[in-house]
């Protein structure tokens, strides 16, 4: 029997939403303070996914100026109807809910249509077979008995303008007494009945998936007596896969049902990989959907296996544009990077990684517990300037391996305070930089001549890069960085190549 391995999309890709068009599946996830926003994935077997771009790839679509860590874009939903793709999401702490449309999921996507009347988070679209369009979402109750007491609302949208019309309906709240954050509502119509899928318990170890059903879209909805239909909370925090929840359902052409969902693989006292995208089988019993426990390995969908060509481990920066694996921190308002002559050139600017700004940073997600990154840097710093590799959790917690006028420095920033861990003089010319992670041990390395690697300092405790279980929504990133640290500069740092290698 053919099997698959979870997670199907490793690294910080949480809150997955999925739709099927024929034999093709498209999936989006949250992106928070990182730009471009809402990564778009494509699969033909639910197991093997390739990233084909981002939904929000223009500054006109996404304003992340000054956004806090784990703010920004929350919980997108993707749907397809009458040849058009729809993505609806929330820009937290800013303008609220909006949607965009496209004829091709790879883009281009429209500029946002804002829906200011819709309050809360986790919006989802539902296209009924009578032609009506509905949106659901979650918000805290106006008279909440406790912090995190929420309700699920339903609102009809005009089919042409997508503006809210008619009466709002509050259709659901938490199943478990005292449960927090009843959220991530998705509606489906199966066998003439309406099914409402939600999560509750928060996005940490108490996470769970609930389901209710009704004969009318506006309710009343009845709870499945077997709720929760999926959770790992009874396994405890030391289980290999925790925090299971925030699911979306999809039916295959063969009539199988599957759920994509977020979960966490904790290790070594941390959650550096963040919340990742997992897959599990769904079966129907007594008119209700029930999900299998999320396993590291399980029998694969019956569809024919479809693998995509393997991506190179090393980026030589010889394409016309950055690969979609790369991200920037907040919205870029000026071009500070370029691809020229097979190199990535980063212009030094005053902004730093310690500010809620858009620094000269090009980074990608850490996707494996054990991994190594290497890069070749050409840079001649003046006083106050730096460039090199970085490991990033947020503004107040990160690690710099950077060339400065004083030499190569390893700097840890923890809780907003910087500490110089190690420093060494290096000659002018090309410098090779690297970091090797084994669990929570991150070892910085450098080489003046290719292959002659030396450790810089001792291993850094990687738990610095682990987000808090319930409030840090992004995992660790690793990338290339350059800064003039508050001073004007015309300098440029050049990276000839960057390699990310999983270590088995």
From TrEMBL:
Task: Give a yes or no for keyword ATP-binding in this entry.
Answer: no
Single Gene Ontology MF annotation: hydrolase activity
List the keywords (alphabetical). Answer: Glycosidase, Hydrolase
rRNA processing: is it a keyword of this entry? Answer: no
Tell me the ranges covered by the Beta-xylosidase C-terminal Concanavalin A-like domain, including all copies. Answer: 314-501
Instruction: Provide the family line.
Output: Belongs to the glycosyl hydrolase 43 family.
Q: What is this protein called?
A: Glycoside hydrolase 43 family protein
Species of provenance:
Microbispora corallina
């Amino acid at each position: 029997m053919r099997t698959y391995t979870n997670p199907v999309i490793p690294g910080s890709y949480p809150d997955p939403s999925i739709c099927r068009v024929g034999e093709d599946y498209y999936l989006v996830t949250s992106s928070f303070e990182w730009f471009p926003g809402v990564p778009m994935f494509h699969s033909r077997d639910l197991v093997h996914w390739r990233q084909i771009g981002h939904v929000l790839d223009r500054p006109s679509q996404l304003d992340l100026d000054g956004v806090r860590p784990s703010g920004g874009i929350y919980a997108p939903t993707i749907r397809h109807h009458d040849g058009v793709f729809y993505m609806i999401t929330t820009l937290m702490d800013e303008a609220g809910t909006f949607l965009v449309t496209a004829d091709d999921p790879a883009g281009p996507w429209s500029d946002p249509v804002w829906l200011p009347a819709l309050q809360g988070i986790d919006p989802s679209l539902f296209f009924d077979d009578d032609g009506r369009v509905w949106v659901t979402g979650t918000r805290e109750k106006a008279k909440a008995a406790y912090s995190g007491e929420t309700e699920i609302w339903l609102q009809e949208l005009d089919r042409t303008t997508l503006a809210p019309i008619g009466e709002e309906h509050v259709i659901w709240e938490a199943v478990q007494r005292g449960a927090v954050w009843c959220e991530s509502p998705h509606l489906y119509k199966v066998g003439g009945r309406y099914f409402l899928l939600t999560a509750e318990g928060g996005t940490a170890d108490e996470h769970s998936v609930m389901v209710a059903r009704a004969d009318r879209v506006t309710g009343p909805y009845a709870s499945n007596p077997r709720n929760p239909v999926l959770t790992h909370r009874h396994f405890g925090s030391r289980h290999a896969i925790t925090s299971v929840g925030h699911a979306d359902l999809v039916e295959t052409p063969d009539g199988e049902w599957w759920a994509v969902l977020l979960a966490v693989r904790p290790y070594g006292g941390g959650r550096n990989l963040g919340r990742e995208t997992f897959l599990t089988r769904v079966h129907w019993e007594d008119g209700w959907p029930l999900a299998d426990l999320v396993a590291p390995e399980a029998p694969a969908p019956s569809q024919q296996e479809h693998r995509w060509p393997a991506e190179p481990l090393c980026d030589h920066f010889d394409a016309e544009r950055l690969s979609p694996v790369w991200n920037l921190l907040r919205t870029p308002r000026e071009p500070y990077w370029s691809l020229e002559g097979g190199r990535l050139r980063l212009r030094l600017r005053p902004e730093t990684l310690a500010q809620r700004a858009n620094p000269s940073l090009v980074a990608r997600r850490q996707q494996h517990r054990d991994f190594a990154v290497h890069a070749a840097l050409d840079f001649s710093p003046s006083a106050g300037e730096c460039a090199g590799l970085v490991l990033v959790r947020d503004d107040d917690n990160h690690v710099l391996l950077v060339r400065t006028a004083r030499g190569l420095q390893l700097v840890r920033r923890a809780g907003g305070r910087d500490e110089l861990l190690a420093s060494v003089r290096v000659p002018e010319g090309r410098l090779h930089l690297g970091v090797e992670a084994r669990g929570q041990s991150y070892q910085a390395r450098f080489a003046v001549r290719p292959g002659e690697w030396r450790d810089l300092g001792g291993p850094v405790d990687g738990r610095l890069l682990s987000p808090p279980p319930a409030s840090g929504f992004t995992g660790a990133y690793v990338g290339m960085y350059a800064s003039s640290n508050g001073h004007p500069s015309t300098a440029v740092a050049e990276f000839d190549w960057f390699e990310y290698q999983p270590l088995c």
